[in-house]
Design a protein that fits this description.
With 526 residues, the chain is α+β, with helices and mostly antiparallel strands. The chain has one domain (16-518): Cytochrome P450 (Cytochrome p450), CATH 1.10.630. It has 18 helices and ten strands. The strands form four sheets. A four-stranded mixed β-sheet has the order 3-4-8-5, with helices on one face. Strand 3 (80-85) and strand 4 form a beta hairpin. It is globular. It binds protoporphyrin IX containing FE. Protoporphyrin IX containing FE is lined by residues 128-129, 142, 145, 149, 320-321, 324-325, 328-329, 332, 389, 392-393, 457-459, 463-467, 470-471. Residues 128-129, 142, 145, 149, 320-321, 324-325, 328-329, 332, 389, 392-393, 457-459, 463-467, 470-471 line the site of protoporphyrin IX containing FE (HEM). This is Cytochrome P450 1A. The chain crosses the membrane at residues 12-36. Its cofactor is heme. Keywords: Endoplasmic reticulum, Heme, Iron, Membrane, Metal-binding, Microsome, Monooxygenase, Oxidoreductase, Transmembrane, Transmembrane helix.
Length: 526
Protein backbone atom coordinates (compact mmCIF):
# COMPACT_ATOMS: atom_id res chain seq x y z
CA UNK A 1 0.00 0.00 0.00
CA UNK A 2 2.78 2.36 1.03
CA UNK A 3 4.54 1.51 -2.23
CA UNK A 4 1.36 2.31 -4.15
CA UNK A 5 1.10 5.72 -2.44
CA UNK A 6 4.67 6.73 -3.18
CA UNK A 7 6.20 8.63 -6.07
CA UNK A 8 9.41 7.77 -7.84
CA UNK A 9 11.74 10.76 -7.76
CA UNK A 10 15.11 11.08 -9.46
CA UNK A 11 16.79 10.25 -6.15
CA UNK A 12 14.57 7.26 -5.31
CA UNK A 13 11.26 6.79 -3.50
CA UNK A 14 9.52 9.76 -1.76
CA UNK A 15 6.86 8.72 0.74
CA UNK A 16 3.50 10.45 1.21
CA UNK A 17 4.55 11.36 4.77
CA UNK A 18 7.60 13.16 3.42
CA UNK A 19 5.42 15.07 0.95
CA UNK A 20 3.03 16.08 3.74
CA UNK A 21 5.91 17.26 5.96
CA UNK A 22 7.41 19.24 3.07
CA UNK A 23 4.02 20.87 2.36
CA UNK A 24 3.53 21.76 6.03
CA UNK A 25 7.02 23.31 6.19
CA UNK A 26 6.30 25.25 3.00
CA UNK A 27 2.98 26.61 4.30
CA UNK A 28 4.53 27.54 7.66
CA UNK A 29 7.38 29.37 5.94
CA UNK A 30 4.86 31.13 3.72
CA UNK A 31 2.83 32.28 6.73
CA UNK A 32 5.96 33.46 8.60
CA UNK A 33 7.07 35.45 5.54
CA UNK A 34 3.60 36.99 5.26
CA UNK A 35 3.68 38.01 8.92
CA UNK A 36 6.86 40.03 8.25
CA UNK A 37 5.01 42.13 5.72
CA UNK A 38 6.79 45.13 4.32
CA UNK A 39 6.55 48.18 6.56
CA UNK A 40 4.86 51.05 4.81
CA UNK A 41 5.58 54.73 5.42
CA UNK A 42 3.33 56.45 7.92
CA UNK A 43 0.17 58.08 6.59
CA UNK A 44 -0.06 55.82 3.54
CA UNK A 45 -2.61 53.06 2.98
CA UNK A 46 -1.63 49.42 2.53
CA UNK A 47 -2.80 47.79 -0.72
CA UNK A 48 -5.81 45.57 -0.21
CA UNK A 49 -7.54 42.87 -2.22
CA UNK A 50 -9.05 39.40 -1.99
CA UNK A 51 -7.31 36.90 0.28
CA UNK A 52 -5.53 34.15 -1.63
CA UNK A 53 -4.49 30.57 -0.90
CA UNK A 54 -0.84 29.73 -0.17
CA UNK A 55 1.16 28.96 -3.31
CA UNK A 56 -1.66 29.61 -5.83
CA UNK A 57 -2.95 32.94 -4.50
CA UNK A 58 -6.17 34.06 -6.25
CA UNK A 59 -5.70 31.94 -9.38
CA UNK A 60 -8.86 29.87 -8.85
CA UNK A 61 -11.08 32.96 -8.52
CA UNK A 62 -9.77 34.51 -11.75
CA UNK A 63 -11.25 31.65 -13.77
CA UNK A 64 -11.49 31.75 -17.54
CA UNK A 65 -12.45 35.44 -17.86
CA UNK A 66 -10.04 37.33 -15.58
CA UNK A 67 -10.95 40.73 -17.09
CA UNK A 68 -14.58 40.29 -15.92
CA UNK A 69 -13.66 38.95 -12.48
CA UNK A 70 -11.09 41.71 -11.89
CA UNK A 71 -13.71 44.28 -12.96
CA UNK A 72 -16.11 42.86 -10.35
CA UNK A 73 -13.36 42.78 -7.71
CA UNK A 74 -12.49 46.42 -8.43
CA UNK A 75 -16.04 47.38 -7.44
CA UNK A 76 -15.33 45.95 -3.99
CA UNK A 77 -11.65 46.85 -3.49
CA UNK A 78 -11.34 50.00 -5.62
CA UNK A 79 -9.27 51.22 -8.58
CA UNK A 80 -5.99 50.31 -6.88
CA UNK A 81 -6.05 46.74 -5.59
CA UNK A 82 -3.61 43.93 -5.07
CA UNK A 83 -4.15 40.30 -5.95
CA UNK A 84 -1.81 37.35 -5.71
CA UNK A 85 -1.14 35.16 -8.75
CA UNK A 86 0.83 32.16 -7.56
CA UNK A 87 3.48 33.61 -5.30
CA UNK A 88 3.65 36.92 -7.21
CA UNK A 89 1.75 39.97 -5.92
CA UNK A 90 0.09 41.90 -8.75
CA UNK A 91 -1.27 45.45 -8.65
CA UNK A 92 -4.49 45.77 -10.67
CA UNK A 93 -5.40 49.23 -11.91
CA UNK A 94 -8.93 50.21 -12.97
CA UNK A 95 -10.74 53.52 -13.56
CA UNK A 96 -9.62 55.89 -16.30
CA UNK A 97 -8.51 58.68 -13.93
CA UNK A 98 -6.45 56.31 -11.77
CA UNK A 99 -4.84 54.71 -14.84
CA UNK A 100 -3.98 58.15 -16.26
CA UNK A 101 -2.55 59.14 -12.90
CA UNK A 102 -0.26 56.09 -13.00
CA UNK A 103 0.69 55.69 -16.68
CA UNK A 104 0.79 59.38 -17.68
CA UNK A 105 1.42 61.56 -14.58
CA UNK A 106 3.80 58.98 -13.08
CA UNK A 107 4.86 57.64 -16.47
CA UNK A 108 8.50 56.98 -15.51
CA UNK A 109 7.49 54.98 -12.42
CA UNK A 110 4.96 52.72 -14.15
CA UNK A 111 6.84 52.16 -17.43
CA UNK A 112 8.77 49.00 -16.48
CA UNK A 113 8.09 45.47 -17.71
CA UNK A 114 8.08 42.67 -15.12
CA UNK A 115 10.74 39.99 -15.21
CA UNK A 116 8.42 37.18 -16.31
CA UNK A 117 9.96 33.90 -17.35
CA UNK A 118 7.87 33.77 -20.58
CA UNK A 119 9.16 37.20 -21.65
CA UNK A 120 12.76 35.86 -21.64
CA UNK A 121 11.76 33.51 -24.43
CA UNK A 122 10.29 36.14 -26.74
CA UNK A 123 12.76 37.41 -29.35
CA UNK A 124 15.62 35.87 -27.36
CA UNK A 125 14.87 38.23 -24.48
CA UNK A 126 15.75 41.17 -26.79
CA UNK A 127 12.20 42.23 -27.60
CA UNK A 128 11.42 45.95 -27.47
CA UNK A 129 8.00 45.12 -26.13
CA UNK A 130 8.71 42.41 -23.56
CA UNK A 131 12.27 42.85 -22.29
CA UNK A 132 12.70 44.28 -18.80
CA UNK A 133 14.92 47.08 -20.12
CA UNK A 134 13.28 50.51 -19.88
CA UNK A 135 16.44 52.63 -19.77
CA UNK A 136 18.27 54.67 -22.43
CA UNK A 137 18.93 51.70 -24.73
CA UNK A 138 15.23 50.74 -24.70
CA UNK A 139 14.31 54.40 -25.36
CA UNK A 140 16.66 54.47 -28.35
CA UNK A 141 15.29 51.20 -29.72
CA UNK A 142 11.69 52.39 -29.33
CA UNK A 143 12.57 55.55 -31.22
CA UNK A 144 14.25 53.49 -33.92
CA UNK A 145 11.13 51.34 -34.35
CA UNK A 146 8.88 54.44 -34.36
CA UNK A 147 11.00 56.10 -37.04
CA UNK A 148 11.12 52.91 -39.11
CA UNK A 149 7.32 52.68 -38.94
CA UNK A 150 6.96 56.32 -39.93
CA UNK A 151 9.28 55.90 -42.91
CA UNK A 152 7.47 52.81 -44.13
CA UNK A 153 4.00 54.29 -43.80
CA UNK A 154 3.70 58.05 -44.28
CA UNK A 155 6.48 58.51 -46.87
CA UNK A 156 5.00 59.62 -50.19
CA UNK A 157 4.26 56.81 -52.58
CA UNK A 158 6.72 57.07 -55.54
CA UNK A 159 4.70 55.10 -58.08
CA UNK A 160 1.00 55.61 -57.48
CA UNK A 161 -1.61 58.32 -56.99
CA UNK A 162 -1.94 57.40 -53.28
CA UNK A 163 -0.90 60.04 -50.76
CA UNK A 164 1.48 57.71 -48.89
CA UNK A 165 2.93 54.19 -48.90
CA UNK A 166 0.46 52.93 -46.32
CA UNK A 167 -2.53 54.12 -48.37
CA UNK A 168 -1.08 52.52 -51.49
CA UNK A 169 -0.46 49.14 -49.84
CA UNK A 170 -3.75 48.95 -47.94
CA UNK A 171 -5.82 49.99 -50.98
CA UNK A 172 -4.11 47.36 -53.08
CA UNK A 173 -4.56 44.61 -50.48
CA UNK A 174 -8.19 45.55 -49.78
CA UNK A 175 -8.86 45.26 -53.52
CA UNK A 176 -7.31 41.78 -53.64
CA UNK A 177 -9.53 40.91 -50.69
CA UNK A 178 -12.69 42.11 -52.47
CA UNK A 179 -11.81 39.95 -55.47
CA UNK A 180 -10.96 36.95 -53.29
CA UNK A 181 -14.29 37.23 -51.40
CA UNK A 182 -16.20 37.45 -54.70
CA UNK A 183 -14.37 34.39 -56.03
CA UNK A 184 -15.07 32.41 -52.84
CA UNK A 185 -18.72 33.38 -53.00
CA UNK A 186 -18.97 32.16 -56.54
CA UNK A 187 -17.16 28.88 -55.89
CA UNK A 188 -18.26 28.00 -52.35
CA UNK A 189 -21.26 30.24 -51.58
CA UNK A 190 -19.93 30.99 -48.09
CA UNK A 191 -16.54 31.63 -46.45
CA UNK A 192 -14.58 32.51 -43.29
CA UNK A 193 -13.16 36.04 -43.82
CA UNK A 194 -10.55 35.84 -41.02
CA UNK A 195 -8.43 33.33 -42.93
CA UNK A 196 -8.02 35.81 -45.84
CA UNK A 197 -7.87 39.08 -43.91
CA UNK A 198 -4.90 37.89 -41.90
CA UNK A 199 -2.90 37.37 -45.11
CA UNK A 200 -3.89 40.82 -46.42
CA UNK A 201 -2.90 42.58 -43.20
CA UNK A 202 0.40 40.67 -43.08
CA UNK A 203 1.01 41.66 -46.69
CA UNK A 204 0.74 45.34 -45.75
CA UNK A 205 3.53 44.99 -43.17
CA UNK A 206 5.64 42.85 -45.52
CA UNK A 207 5.13 45.33 -48.35
CA UNK A 208 6.15 48.25 -46.13
CA UNK A 209 9.27 46.46 -44.85
CA UNK A 210 10.46 44.48 -47.90
CA UNK A 211 8.11 44.93 -50.84
CA UNK A 212 7.04 41.29 -50.48
CA UNK A 213 3.48 40.02 -50.84
CA UNK A 214 2.13 36.56 -50.15
CA UNK A 215 -0.53 34.70 -52.06
CA UNK A 216 -3.70 33.99 -50.04
CA UNK A 217 -2.87 30.27 -50.16
CA UNK A 218 0.82 30.57 -49.21
CA UNK A 219 1.38 27.63 -46.86
CA UNK A 220 4.40 29.14 -45.13
CA UNK A 221 2.50 32.27 -44.16
CA UNK A 222 -0.62 30.35 -43.13
CA UNK A 223 1.43 28.09 -40.87
CA UNK A 224 3.01 31.16 -39.24
CA UNK A 225 -0.50 32.58 -38.68
CA UNK A 226 -1.58 29.30 -37.08
CA UNK A 227 1.52 29.44 -34.89
CA UNK A 228 0.62 32.92 -33.75
CA UNK A 229 -2.93 31.83 -32.91
CA UNK A 230 -1.64 28.83 -30.96
CA UNK A 231 0.77 31.18 -29.20
CA UNK A 232 -2.19 33.39 -28.18
CA UNK A 233 -4.05 30.38 -26.82
CA UNK A 234 -1.05 29.14 -24.81
CA UNK A 235 -0.37 32.65 -23.50
CA UNK A 236 -4.07 33.08 -22.57
CA UNK A 237 -4.01 30.06 -20.32
CA UNK A 238 -1.09 31.74 -18.54
CA UNK A 239 2.33 30.31 -17.87
CA UNK A 240 2.43 29.06 -14.26
CA UNK A 241 6.25 29.55 -14.23
CA UNK A 242 5.69 33.34 -14.51
CA UNK A 243 3.87 33.39 -11.23
CA UNK A 244 5.42 30.45 -9.32
CA UNK A 245 9.10 30.97 -10.32
CA UNK A 246 10.30 27.61 -8.98
CA UNK A 247 8.28 25.90 -11.73
CA UNK A 248 10.66 27.19 -14.40
CA UNK A 249 13.11 24.49 -13.32
CA UNK A 250 10.58 21.71 -13.90
CA UNK A 251 9.74 20.36 -17.33
CA UNK A 252 6.39 21.80 -18.49
CA UNK A 253 4.42 21.08 -21.63
CA UNK A 254 3.04 24.64 -21.81
CA UNK A 255 6.54 26.10 -21.63
CA UNK A 256 7.85 23.74 -24.28
CA UNK A 257 5.04 24.74 -26.68
CA UNK A 258 5.66 28.41 -25.87
CA UNK A 259 9.42 28.12 -26.56
CA UNK A 260 8.89 26.14 -29.77
CA UNK A 261 6.40 28.68 -31.07
CA UNK A 262 8.77 31.54 -30.37
CA UNK A 263 11.65 29.77 -32.09
CA UNK A 264 9.55 29.05 -35.17
CA UNK A 265 8.24 32.61 -35.31
CA UNK A 266 11.80 34.01 -35.02
CA UNK A 267 13.11 31.78 -37.76
CA UNK A 268 10.17 32.72 -40.02
CA UNK A 269 11.03 36.42 -39.63
CA UNK A 270 14.76 35.68 -39.95
CA UNK A 271 14.10 33.89 -43.24
CA UNK A 272 12.09 36.72 -44.81
CA UNK A 273 14.60 39.30 -43.61
CA UNK A 274 17.43 37.26 -45.23
CA UNK A 275 15.48 36.83 -48.46
CA UNK A 276 14.68 40.52 -48.70
CA UNK A 277 17.67 42.07 -46.98
CA UNK A 278 18.71 43.82 -50.18
CA UNK A 279 15.36 45.61 -50.54
CA UNK A 280 15.26 46.66 -46.89
CA UNK A 281 15.71 50.41 -46.46
CA UNK A 282 19.01 50.08 -44.62
CA UNK A 283 20.22 53.61 -45.38
CA UNK A 284 17.34 55.08 -43.53
CA UNK A 285 17.77 52.72 -40.58
CA UNK A 286 21.53 53.48 -40.57
CA UNK A 287 20.86 57.25 -40.36
CA UNK A 288 18.52 56.67 -37.45
CA UNK A 289 20.90 54.29 -35.65
CA UNK A 290 23.79 56.74 -36.09
CA UNK A 291 21.85 59.55 -34.45
CA UNK A 292 20.77 57.21 -31.67
CA UNK A 293 24.33 56.10 -31.01
CA UNK A 294 25.27 59.79 -30.68
CA UNK A 295 22.33 60.25 -28.32
CA UNK A 296 23.52 57.30 -26.20
CA UNK A 297 27.07 58.65 -26.12
CA UNK A 298 25.77 62.03 -25.02
CA UNK A 299 23.76 60.38 -22.25
CA UNK A 300 26.85 58.33 -21.33
CA UNK A 301 25.04 55.03 -21.79
CA UNK A 302 27.52 52.13 -21.86
CA UNK A 303 25.98 50.06 -24.61
CA UNK A 304 25.75 51.97 -27.85
CA UNK A 305 26.86 48.77 -29.61
CA UNK A 306 23.52 47.35 -28.61
CA UNK A 307 21.75 49.51 -31.14
CA UNK A 308 24.30 49.29 -33.94
CA UNK A 309 22.81 48.07 -37.20
CA UNK A 310 23.17 44.36 -37.87
CA UNK A 311 21.16 41.61 -39.51
CA UNK A 312 20.04 40.54 -36.07
CA UNK A 313 18.99 44.09 -35.21
CA UNK A 314 16.84 44.27 -38.32
CA UNK A 315 15.32 40.90 -37.46
CA UNK A 316 14.53 42.25 -33.99
CA UNK A 317 12.88 45.42 -35.32
CA UNK A 318 10.84 43.47 -37.85
CA UNK A 319 9.96 40.90 -35.20
CA UNK A 320 8.66 43.66 -32.89
CA UNK A 321 6.60 45.36 -35.59
CA UNK A 322 5.42 42.19 -37.23
CA UNK A 323 4.34 40.42 -34.05
CA UNK A 324 2.49 43.45 -32.68
CA UNK A 325 1.03 44.64 -35.96
CA UNK A 326 -0.65 41.82 -37.81
CA UNK A 327 -2.67 40.08 -35.12
CA UNK A 328 -4.11 43.27 -33.61
CA UNK A 329 -5.22 44.81 -36.92
CA UNK A 330 -6.64 41.51 -38.23
CA UNK A 331 -8.55 41.01 -34.98
CA UNK A 332 -9.96 44.56 -35.21
CA UNK A 333 -11.15 43.94 -38.78
CA UNK A 334 -12.57 40.58 -37.90
CA UNK A 335 -14.58 42.04 -34.98
CA UNK A 336 -15.79 44.82 -37.29
CA UNK A 337 -17.26 42.31 -39.77
CA UNK A 338 -18.91 40.38 -36.93
CA UNK A 339 -20.64 43.55 -35.67
CA UNK A 340 -21.66 44.55 -39.22
CA UNK A 341 -23.49 41.26 -39.83
CA UNK A 342 -24.99 41.30 -36.33
CA UNK A 343 -26.35 44.84 -36.81
CA UNK A 344 -27.34 45.18 -40.51
CA UNK A 345 -28.99 48.56 -39.83
CA UNK A 346 -25.59 49.92 -38.76
CA UNK A 347 -23.96 48.49 -41.89
CA UNK A 348 -26.66 50.24 -43.96
CA UNK A 349 -25.84 53.62 -42.36
CA UNK A 350 -22.14 53.16 -43.21
CA UNK A 351 -23.05 52.25 -46.80
CA UNK A 352 -25.18 55.41 -47.07
CA UNK A 353 -22.39 57.57 -45.68
CA UNK A 354 -19.86 56.06 -48.11
CA UNK A 355 -22.23 56.54 -51.07
CA UNK A 356 -22.85 60.19 -50.19
CA UNK A 357 -19.25 61.11 -49.39
CA UNK A 358 -17.19 59.02 -51.81
CA UNK A 359 -19.59 57.56 -54.38
CA UNK A 360 -18.58 55.07 -57.08
CA UNK A 361 -15.94 56.92 -59.05
CA UNK A 362 -12.92 56.49 -56.78
CA UNK A 363 -11.51 54.48 -53.86
CA UNK A 364 -11.59 55.72 -50.23
CA UNK A 365 -8.49 57.65 -49.10
CA UNK A 366 -7.06 58.49 -45.71
CA UNK A 367 -8.05 62.11 -46.29
CA UNK A 368 -11.74 61.02 -46.29
CA UNK A 369 -11.53 60.07 -42.63
CA UNK A 370 -12.68 63.42 -41.16
CA UNK A 371 -15.81 63.35 -43.39
CA UNK A 372 -16.87 59.77 -42.60
CA UNK A 373 -18.17 60.48 -39.10
CA UNK A 374 -20.52 57.53 -38.70
CA UNK A 375 -17.83 55.09 -39.91
CA UNK A 376 -15.38 56.62 -37.44
CA UNK A 377 -17.95 56.27 -34.64
CA UNK A 378 -18.51 52.62 -35.63
CA UNK A 379 -14.77 51.87 -35.40
CA UNK A 380 -14.55 53.54 -31.97
CA UNK A 381 -17.54 51.52 -30.75
CA UNK A 382 -16.00 48.30 -32.13
CA UNK A 383 -12.82 49.00 -30.10
CA UNK A 384 -14.80 49.91 -26.96
CA UNK A 385 -17.40 47.15 -27.04
CA UNK A 386 -15.07 44.28 -27.99
CA UNK A 387 -12.14 45.57 -25.89
CA UNK A 388 -10.28 42.75 -27.59
CA UNK A 389 -7.07 43.68 -25.76
CA UNK A 390 -8.61 43.46 -22.27
CA UNK A 391 -5.31 44.26 -20.54
CA UNK A 392 -2.24 46.12 -21.70
CA UNK A 393 0.98 44.12 -21.68
CA UNK A 394 1.94 43.81 -17.97
CA UNK A 395 3.87 46.78 -16.56
CA UNK A 396 5.98 47.02 -13.41
CA UNK A 397 7.02 49.82 -11.09
CA UNK A 398 10.57 51.16 -11.41
CA UNK A 399 10.66 52.61 -7.84
CA UNK A 400 8.56 52.95 -4.66
CA UNK A 401 5.66 55.34 -5.15
CA UNK A 402 2.23 56.46 -3.96
CA UNK A 403 -1.01 56.16 -5.93
CA UNK A 404 -4.40 57.35 -4.61
CA UNK A 405 -2.85 57.35 -1.10
CA UNK A 406 -1.63 53.72 -1.38
CA UNK A 407 2.01 52.79 -0.93
CA UNK A 408 3.22 50.94 -4.05
CA UNK A 409 6.61 49.20 -3.78
CA UNK A 410 9.30 49.04 -6.52
CA UNK A 411 9.25 46.06 -8.92
CA UNK A 412 5.56 45.33 -8.42
CA UNK A 413 3.90 43.70 -11.45
CA UNK A 414 0.99 45.85 -12.72
CA UNK A 415 -2.08 44.78 -14.74
CA UNK A 416 -4.01 47.61 -16.42
CA UNK A 417 -7.65 46.61 -17.02
CA UNK A 418 -8.64 48.30 -20.30
CA UNK A 419 -11.88 46.27 -20.47
CA UNK A 420 -13.01 47.80 -17.16
CA UNK A 421 -12.47 51.36 -18.47
CA UNK A 422 -14.41 50.62 -21.67
CA UNK A 423 -17.36 49.17 -19.75
CA UNK A 424 -17.34 51.45 -16.71
CA UNK A 425 -20.90 52.53 -15.90
CA UNK A 426 -19.53 55.78 -14.49
CA UNK A 427 -18.16 56.63 -17.95
CA UNK A 428 -20.66 55.08 -20.38
CA UNK A 429 -24.45 54.94 -20.64
CA UNK A 430 -25.54 51.29 -21.20
CA UNK A 431 -21.97 50.07 -21.72
CA UNK A 432 -23.06 46.62 -22.91
CA UNK A 433 -25.13 48.08 -25.79
CA UNK A 434 -23.39 48.40 -29.18
CA UNK A 435 -24.21 51.95 -30.22
CA UNK A 436 -21.84 53.95 -32.49
CA UNK A 437 -24.02 57.06 -32.08
CA UNK A 438 -22.71 57.51 -28.53
CA UNK A 439 -19.60 59.04 -30.17
CA UNK A 440 -21.48 61.58 -32.32
CA UNK A 441 -22.55 65.07 -31.26
CA UNK A 442 -26.31 65.59 -30.79
CA UNK A 443 -26.68 66.98 -34.34
CA UNK A 444 -24.48 64.17 -35.72
CA UNK A 445 -22.17 66.72 -37.31
CA UNK A 446 -18.98 65.81 -35.47
CA UNK A 447 -17.26 63.05 -33.49
CA UNK A 448 -17.32 63.94 -29.81
CA UNK A 449 -13.58 64.08 -28.95
CA UNK A 450 -14.13 63.89 -25.17
CA UNK A 451 -16.07 60.62 -25.60
CA UNK A 452 -13.62 59.09 -28.09
CA UNK A 453 -10.68 59.82 -25.79
CA UNK A 454 -12.27 57.72 -23.06
CA UNK A 455 -11.86 54.53 -25.13
CA UNK A 456 -8.77 52.69 -23.92
CA UNK A 457 -7.32 50.28 -26.44
CA UNK A 458 -3.68 51.26 -27.09
CA UNK A 459 -2.43 51.77 -23.53
CA UNK A 460 -1.28 55.19 -22.29
CA UNK A 461 1.96 56.94 -21.38
CA UNK A 462 5.53 55.84 -22.01
CA UNK A 463 4.59 52.30 -23.14
CA UNK A 464 1.67 53.38 -25.33
CA UNK A 465 1.41 51.43 -28.59
CA UNK A 466 3.76 52.87 -31.23
CA UNK A 467 1.54 51.55 -34.03
CA UNK A 468 -1.65 53.35 -32.90
CA UNK A 469 -1.95 55.71 -35.89
CA UNK A 470 -1.04 53.02 -38.39
CA UNK A 471 -3.44 50.57 -36.74
CA UNK A 472 -6.33 53.07 -36.87
CA UNK A 473 -5.55 54.05 -40.49
CA UNK A 474 -5.35 50.43 -41.62
CA UNK A 475 -8.67 49.51 -40.00
CA UNK A 476 -10.32 52.60 -41.55
CA UNK A 477 -8.98 52.02 -45.08
CA UNK A 478 -9.59 48.25 -45.18
CA UNK A 479 -13.14 48.65 -43.88
CA UNK A 480 -14.15 51.55 -46.12
CA UNK A 481 -12.68 49.87 -49.23
CA UNK A 482 -14.52 46.61 -48.45
CA UNK A 483 -17.80 48.29 -47.55
CA UNK A 484 -17.80 50.64 -50.51
CA UNK A 485 -18.07 47.59 -52.78
CA UNK A 486 -19.58 44.81 -50.67
CA UNK A 487 -22.52 44.08 -48.40
CA UNK A 488 -21.82 41.44 -45.73
CA UNK A 489 -24.28 39.00 -44.18
CA UNK A 490 -24.37 35.44 -42.79
CA UNK A 491 -26.20 32.50 -44.42
CA UNK A 492 -29.93 32.17 -43.65
CA UNK A 493 -30.48 30.42 -40.34
CA UNK A 494 -26.92 31.16 -39.10
CA UNK A 495 -25.89 33.75 -36.49
CA UNK A 496 -22.52 35.34 -35.83
CA UNK A 497 -21.49 34.61 -32.23
CA UNK A 498 -19.90 37.73 -30.75
CA UNK A 499 -19.01 36.25 -27.36
CA UNK A 500 -15.31 37.05 -26.79
CA UNK A 501 -13.00 34.17 -25.94
CA UNK A 502 -10.41 35.30 -23.42
CA UNK A 503 -6.83 35.64 -24.67
CA UNK A 504 -3.95 38.11 -25.10
CA UNK A 505 -6.13 39.37 -27.94
CA UNK A 506 -9.70 38.20 -27.46
CA UNK A 507 -11.16 36.52 -30.53
CA UNK A 508 -14.74 35.62 -31.40
CA UNK A 509 -15.65 32.12 -32.57
CA UNK A 510 -14.60 31.78 -36.21
CA UNK A 511 -17.61 32.06 -38.51
CA UNK A 512 -17.57 30.14 -41.80
CA UNK A 513 -20.99 31.30 -42.93
CA UNK A 514 -20.19 34.75 -44.25
CA UNK A 515 -21.77 35.80 -47.54
CA UNK A 516 -21.37 38.95 -49.63
CA UNK A 517 -23.26 40.83 -52.32
CA UNK A 518 -21.41 43.10 -54.69
CA UNK A 519 -22.85 46.62 -54.47
CA UNK A 520 -21.09 48.03 -57.55
CA UNK A 521 -17.68 47.99 -59.13
CA UNK A 522 -15.54 51.06 -58.51
CA UNK A 523 -13.81 52.54 -61.53
CA UNK A 524 -10.17 51.37 -61.66
CA UNK A 525 -8.72 54.86 -62.02
CA UNK A 526 -9.73 55.78 -58.41
C1 LIG B 1 -5.66 47.97 -33.73
C2 LIG B 1 -4.40 47.80 -33.63
C3 LIG B 1 -3.57 47.82 -32.38
C4 LIG B 1 -3.92 47.81 -31.06
C5 LIG B 1 -5.33 47.78 -30.47
C6 LIG B 1 -2.69 47.86 -30.27
C7 LIG B 1 -2.64 47.90 -28.89
C8 LIG B 1 -1.47 47.88 -28.15
C9 LIG B 1 -1.41 47.80 -26.70
C10 LIG B 1 -2.59 47.74 -25.75
C11 LIG B 1 -0.10 47.79 -26.35
C12 LIG B 1 0.47 47.68 -24.92
C13 LIG B 1 0.63 49.01 -24.27
C14 LIG B 1 1.14 48.88 -22.85
O1 LIG B 1 1.84 47.93 -22.51
O2 LIG B 1 0.82 49.74 -22.03
C15 LIG B 1 0.68 47.86 -27.57
C16 LIG B 1 2.07 47.90 -27.61
C17 LIG B 1 2.80 47.91 -28.78
N1 LIG B 1 2.30 47.98 -30.06
FE1 LIG B 1 0.34 48.02 -30.61
N2 LIG B 1 -1.63 47.88 -31.13
C18 LIG B 1 -2.11 47.88 -32.42
C19 LIG B 1 -1.38 47.92 -33.58
C20 LIG B 1 -0.01 47.98 -33.66
C21 LIG B 1 0.75 48.05 -34.89
C22 LIG B 1 0.14 48.13 -36.29
C23 LIG B 1 2.08 48.06 -34.53
C24 LIG B 1 3.32 48.12 -35.40
C25 LIG B 1 3.36 47.88 -36.67
C26 LIG B 1 2.14 48.00 -33.07
C27 LIG B 1 3.31 48.00 -32.34
C28 LIG B 1 3.37 47.95 -30.94
C29 LIG B 1 4.62 47.88 -30.19
C30 LIG B 1 6.03 47.81 -30.77
C31 LIG B 1 4.25 47.87 -28.82
C32 LIG B 1 5.19 47.80 -27.61
C33 LIG B 1 5.52 49.19 -27.11
C34 LIG B 1 6.46 49.18 -25.90
O3 LIG B 1 6.51 48.20 -25.14
O4 LIG B 1 7.15 50.19 -25.70
N3 LIG B 1 0.86 47.95 -32.58
N4 LIG B 1 -0.18 47.91 -28.64
Amino acid sequence: MKAAMSLVGSQGIISVTEILIASAVFCLTFMVIRSFRQQIPKGLKRLSGPRGYPLIGNVLELGSNPHLILTQMSQKYGDVMQIQIGTRPVLVLSGLDTIKQALVKQGEVFMGRPDLYSFHNIGDGQSLTFSTDSGEVWRARRKLAQNALKTFSVSPSPNSSSTCLLEEHVSKEADYLVRKFLQLMEEEKRFDPYRYMVVSVTNVICAMCFGKRYNHDDQELLSMVNLSNEFGEVAASGNPADFIPVLQYLPSRAMKIFKDLNKKFDSFVQKIVKEHYSSFDKDNIRDITDSLIEHCQEKKVDEPANIQLSDQKIVNIVNDLFGAGFDTVTTALSWSLMYLVTYPEIQKKIHEELDQTIGRERRPRLSDRPMLLYTEAFILEMFRHSSFLPFTIPHCTTRDTVLNGYFIPKDLCVFVNQWQVNHDEKLWKDPSTFNPERFLSAEGTEVNRAESEKVMMFGLGKRKCIGESIGRWEVFLFLTTLLQQLEFSVCDGEKADITPQYGLTMKHKRCEHFQIKERFEVKKSG
